[in-house]
Specification:
binds iron/sulfur cluster, Alpha-Beta Plaits, three-stranded antiparallel beta sheet, 2 domains, eight-stranded mixed beta sheet
């Protein structure tokens, strides 16, 4: 007799808080046994198997786990190479920005994505773009978009991406698909299945955003609580590359400048919103921040030579012939060849090389629970696993829990105590930078 408790399904991902809401598993379950549900304690979308019975019939194949980017992924296989210092396949590196200031300022970085979408649609290479679009409140839904002004810039909180593949299945058109590396991996995994291989030709190319992390929506709720504003909508990158967070509700709309906090308390709020350890648990294990499965990867050109650029510039990796072809069709975009070493220079090395994800393998609090064994750096000496300190672990374990229990005030006090040294250092550095810019 099979022990029901031992039946493996997508629930081991969700029970261990590793779901990053890509939705891939919902499209593969032969028994339509998976649904995306909103978890209002964790404040995020998650996959959930409705019943264990069909999973018993699944006979240990667990198709859902096969496509899950938070399960044991073979990233060496996905990357197609473990060369390039584990940055994946690279045809060319570019830097550039939109020559239309409206598009550039509406974007997070240089406006590449908007200009690429416009150029490919104008050249009739694609019919439409699959991008997220604002739905209601904090919800953004993958949607077919023709009007680029409906595309948001970077949304850093949890997004339910399930609809992206639904769109592909539904209508026989040519699409450019845009998403985070994990979302693009989930699409790629599904397209590789025999069942869906006919959909491959609907995808002209896939564009991934370089991605350090994204967070559960609770961070945004905490930020709104600290800022004493009711939150209906939030945006994170208003007018230029340096973060300005805007919170909007029925009655008001307020902007908070990441670089110019008005008080020490506001500085702590800003840091709490985007702390690299207060992120979705699945992101902590992520080793693919560089979009291994995409044709093109777009990020922020944070390298030294753009340090004085306050509007925004993209760094781009073209990984495939299709990526090169797409980039060759872009209009209205100033583009220059870049160098491979600029990729790491532009990013925190922790993300560029998936160092935090590697470090997660060593920490002990995983206990009896499941954690992903992503196969990537086996036999590689290129990468050093991030060594977690006690304060990092306190953030992951204690502050996140306080957030989820809505004990926002206590969370802020703990965060300030844990991070006081680095917060003061950050404030001094920030002050010096602002004075030197005057
Ligand atoms: C969660 C997150 C983390 C990121 N981390 C980094 C990083 O560490 N380093 C770095 O260099 N760049 C990072 N980026 C990418 C960067 O912010 C820009 O999005 C990227 O450089 C493209 O800029 P752009 O000006 O061409 O396009 P943008 O105007 O920024 O357009 C972005 C497009 O991407 C899509 N999109 C935005 N958010 C999401 C989302 N949550 N899920 C799915 N699709 C989305 C939408 O189609 C949107 O129109 C991150 C982005 C996100 C969303
Ligand atoms: S184990 Fe099989 S039946 Fe159960 S959720 Fe996964 S794919 Fe569906
Ligand atoms: S990460 Fe994606 S595939 Fe994995 S459980 Fe969540 S929705 Fe399903
Ligand atoms: S860090 Fe990795 S898992 Fe998290 S959102 Fe980015 S690509 Fe997805």
């Amino acid at each position: 007799m099979i022990n029901v408790a031992m039946v493996k399904s997508i629930n081991i991902i969700t029970d261990n808080d590793l779901c990053i809401s890509c939705g891939a598993c919902t499209h593969i379950c032969p028994f339509s046994n998976i649904e995306m549900k909103y978890n209002s304690y964790r404040e995020k979308w998650e996959a959930s198997a409705k019943s264990t019975e069909p999973c018993l019939k699944c006979g240990g194949i667990n198709k859902c786990l096969e496509v899950c980017p938070s399960y044991d992924m073979d990233y060496i296989k996905l990357a197609g190479s473990n060369k390039n210092n584990l940055l994946g396949k690279i045809k060319n590196v570019y830097n550039g920005f939109s020559m239309d200031n409206t598009n550039r300022l509406a974007s997070s970085s240089g406006g590449f994505i908007r200009e690429l979408c416009l150029s490919l649609m104008k050249a009739k290479v694609i019919d439409t773009v699959i991008s997220i679009m604002h739905h209601k409140g904090l919800d953004y839904l993958p949607s077919p978009i023709k009007d680029v002004s409906l595309m948001p810039n970077s949304i850093y909180h949890n997004i339910n991406y399930e609809n992206a593949f639904k769109i592909l299945k539904k209508s026989d058109r040519k699409y450019l698909v845009i998403g985070l590396p994990c979302q693009i991996t989930s699409i790629e995994k599904l397209l590789h299945l025999k069942k869906f291989s006919f959909l491959k030709e609907r995808v002209y190319a896939k564009v991934a955003l370089m991605c350090g992390y994204s967070f559960d929506r609770i961070n945004a709720l905490a930020f709104a609580y600290y800022s004493k504003v009711d939150i209906n909508e939030i945006s994170y990158r208003e007018k230029g590359r340096y973060r300005k967070t805007r919170i909007t509700n029925k009655f008001e709309s307020k902007v908070f400048d990441f670089l110019k906090p008005k008080s020490f308390s506001e500085l702590i709020n800003n840091r709490l919103l985007v702390d690299r350890f207060l992120v979705q648990n699945g992101c902590l294990y992520c080793v693919d921040h560089m979009g291994y499965c995409a044709d093109i990867v777009a990020g922020d050109a944070w390298q030294r030579r753009y340090k004085d650029d306050y509007i925004g510039t993209n760094i781009l990796i073209s990984r495939t012939a299709k990526g090169e072809e797409a980039i060759s069709k872009i209009n209205n975009f100033h583009i220059e060849k870049g160098f491979k070493n600029e990729i790491i220079e532009s990013q925190s090395i922790l993300y560029a090389l998936g160092s935090i994800g590697e470090g997660m393998r060593d920490i002990k609090f995983k206990g009896k629970y499941f954690y992903p064994h992503h196969k990537r750096t086996i036999n590689s000496e290129d990468i050093k696993a991030f060594k977690f300190g006690i304060f990092d672990l306190l953030k992951i374990k204690v502050i996140k829990k306080l957030f989820r229990e809505r004990r926002f005030a206590l969370a802020k006090i703990c965060f300030a105590l844990i991070g006081s040294k680095s917060l003061i250092k950050y404030r001094i550095e920030n002050y010096i930078r602002r004075v030197s810019l005057k």
